[in-house]
Write the structure tokens for this entry.
Amino acid sequence: MKRVIYISLAALLAVMVVSLIFWLVTGEVNIVAPVMGAIIVVLLAIKASKNKNF
């Protein structure tokens, strides 16, 4: 259960960071780029969580 919470927090943080950077660069709010970034972070977190050290 802890792993799901960590992955969810990582995805939320990724969405916030990517959308903030995109907003600072372009001045627009875009939802596609942060969602794609969150999907990548979730996939990496799932891959990393399969290790026993996570």
